[in-house]
UniProtKB/TrEMBL annotation:
Residues 1-101 form the Ig-like domain. The lineage of its organism: Eukaryota, Metazoa, Chordata, Craniata, Vertebrata. It holds the Pfam family V-set. Gene3D superfamilies: Immunoglobulins. It comes from Oncorhynchus mykiss (Rainbow trout). GO terms for cellular component: plasma membrane. Keywords: Immunity, Signal. This is Ig-like domain-containing protein.
């Protein structure tokens, strides 16, 4: 079936460490993976996207890998802060000129979303 997979299910990290999570999908015509996080205030924050093997992260993140079907896109949070504690989502999408750049936090009806990678950062120094 048309599926999007994400892992790990949860991450427990310390401040100033980095955190990585992965997303893959099996939708043959899709070659875009978008990354978001849902903050404590419930709004979605856009973290960047990948088309094919090109990543376009927002500041503070890396996006590497392959967004084509069967590939894996890796999101790296470069330096964890208490603000990094959030639920992270990936979505697979079709690359179409009218959709890009996808700089808003609204996903289109062509997106298959699947939970989740909660990242919890400790407040210990």
């Amino acid at each position: 079936g048309n599926q999007v997979h994400q892992g790990p299910a949860d991450l427990y990290k310390n401040q100033r460490e980095l955190a990585k999570m992965e997303c893959s999908h099996s939708i043959s015509s899709y070659n875009v993976i978008l990354w978001y996080k849902q903050s404590n205030y419930r709004e979605f924050v856009y973290l960047g996207y990948m088309i094919g093997t090109s990543g376009f992260p927002e500041v503070g993140f890396d996006i590497e890998g392959d967004a084509n079907a069967g590939g894996t896109s890796t999101l790296t949070i470069k330096q964890l802060t208490p603000n990094s504690s959030a639920v992270y989502y990936c979505a697979a999408s079709l690359h179409s000129a009218s959709d890009l750049p996808l700089c808003s936090t609204k996903t289109s009806s062509l997106v298959y979303c699947r939970l989740i990678t909660p990242v919890l950062t400790s407040h210990c120094i």
